[in-house]
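Weekly structure sync, notes
Attendees: PL (lead), two postdocs, one rotation student
Agenda item 3: pending single-chain targets
PL asked that the sequence for the first pending target be pasted directly into the notes so everyone works from the same version. It is reproduced below exactly as submitted, 96 residues in total.
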Amino acid sequence: VKPEHVKTVFPPNEILTKWHAGEDADWPPLDEDYELDEDNMPRLRFLLGHRVECRIGPDPVTGWCGGTVTQLWYREANWPPGSFAPYQVQLDDGRM
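Predicted structure, written out during the meeting:
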C-alpha cells in the first residue's frame, strides 16, 4: 500500500478525531438508499483471523494498534439501516 492510496480511501482526520473521542462519525459516506446484501457486498481485503494494523487515533505515528479480524461485515442492532463496518477487530490491547 502506498501513502497516496491511503490518503484517497482513509477517513479524514476529522472523522478519526471523533472516533478517538468516542463520538459518532459516519464513514464511509453511503447513499441513503444503500442496503448491504449478498449482491452488492464488495470483496474484502482481509479474512477472519488475519492480522491487521488499525488506526485508533488521529496521530499518524502513535495512532495505530495491531489486532486480529474476528468478524466480517460487522454491525450492531442499534445502528441505522445500511450502516456497517467491514471488520470487527480484537485489538492486541484487549479492546474490540
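Discussion points:
- The two ends are 24 Å apart (CA to CA).
- Residues 78 and 84 are 11 Å apart (CA to CA).
Action: rotation student to compare against the earlier draft before next sync.
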